[in-house]
Amino acid sequence: MSIDGTPIILWCFVQGSSSIFKVNIGTNNDIDDLKEAIKNDDNELKDERSTIVNTFFGIEGRNIRVVIKIPVNVAFPNLYRTSKNVKKIRKYPSPSSFAQISNLNEYQIKDQAFLIYRPSECVSIPLKLYNSAFCNFQKNFENKQLLVDKSYYQWTLNCIKTMADIYSNEKLRQREFHEKIRELFREESILYLLIEVKNEIGTGKCDPTNQAAISFAKFYTQSKNEQMLKWCNMPCFIIGLAGPWICVLGAVYVEKPLVEPLTNLIPLIPVNDRDHLKKIARLFMALRLEDFELEYKEKLVDDSYKLLWKAETKDKQMIIVKFTHRYNKEAHDLCYGIGKAPRLFYVSDKQCGLHMIVMEFVEGQILRDCVHLAQSDYEVIINDIEEAVLHLHGKNLVFADLRDSNILVTRDSEGYHGILIDFDWVGRENVECYPLFINLDIAWPTGVEIMNH
């Protein structure tokens, strides 16, 4: 860019940065020239550490100061991605059209705008971690000791009789089912329950659960709900019905719409099986919306596989909160007792298939990322880990996932040390096995096999 007119100096400050830089420009240059000059400057942007006033301290009063605002896609990437996805969904065809296999194949494979576990990479963290209502539903549905009101048994019998009938078209079945649901819930003002009905399996050109998922997304991406999406994840239950076959799903709107099945397909037919009838009664009892406290939570981090968060307690203590399918509290406590693991505060009972683990936050770096250490430092770290592993062996426990990603390197006045940080796969020797599902893309040590001791 050439300077046009009287040369002037602009002192620039990038919002979110602690550094300033100057741009030389002329009085006759236009805004595009200024953009180019700023873009070509190679100053590295750093985190904000001081106020604008402090940053410009010392610059003479006659100089012009410029504050540059980073676009939303840079400053707030999650908000930007959400906004981009909302605009995309608004342009999609109607739910009944989108859910047809030809359109679903075209849009979902290309854009992956819906987290519906199809294709397989369209996943998110478990739905139940976004709102406790979904976990409560599953617990109640699976609880064979759940007290069910007599009126629910009578309603269930009537519903089964109605849904087992054969209808000549979808509208008739839809009308009958909606009427039964209105009898049960008597609530139509808020989208806490979304229903999609097909007359029979194979009719209607699409899967009712897919169509319902897209209806959920279409409803909440309307312009009237745009502001609400910024602070609420819109928890919603979905009922998919194809003929007499029913399935319940849960949905939230995070960066993308997330829809996850909470039950399998259940037949609403009058089989001569009391346990089956009780199961259906529990299903609708568990769906009673007034039993749930749909309390809107803060959006969780965007990581589909690593259910691990750094948190802060009310007294400002930093902790780690983790959710996992299995955990060995005994092994963790044993290693903490010899200084080879973080302090463990809490291990919950299993809720909807997951334990919640709370432990202290320890400053450090995983061994895999430590490429700068001296040989003597590595030797100390390995000795620490050997001590921890041998201590577990003395209690007949095996640390089955001993990889560099599960070793945390810490540092104190005496130097570097190593501690163990993941006790999910610790088990009794020759008793417990490796999990059924192992990521085979990882370079595991010799002997690691599915269900192997």
TrEMBL record:
<dbReference type="Pfam" id="PF20147">
    <property type="entry name" value="Crinkler"/>
</dbReference>
<dbReference type="GO" id="GO:0005576">
    <property type="term" value="C:extracellular region"/>
</dbReference>
<dbReference type="GO" id="GO:0005524">
    <property type="term" value="F:ATP binding"/>
</dbReference>
<protein>
    <submittedName>
        <fullName>15006_t:CDS:1</fullName>
    </submittedName>
</protein>
<dbReference type="InterPro" id="IPR011009">
    <property type="entry name" value="Kinase-like_dom_sf"/>
</dbReference>
<keyword id="KW-0964">Secreted</keyword>
<dbReference type="GO" id="GO:0043657">
    <property type="term" value="C:host cell"/>
</dbReference>
<dbReference type="InterPro" id="IPR000719">
    <property type="entry name" value="Prot_kinase_dom"/>
</dbReference>
<feature type="domain" description="Protein kinase">
    <location>
        <begin position="195"/>
        <end position="453"/>
    </location>
</feature>
<dbReference type="GO" id="GO:0004672">
    <property type="term" value="F:protein kinase activity"/>
</dbReference>
<dbReference type="InterPro" id="IPR045379">
    <property type="entry name" value="Crinkler_N"/>
</dbReference>
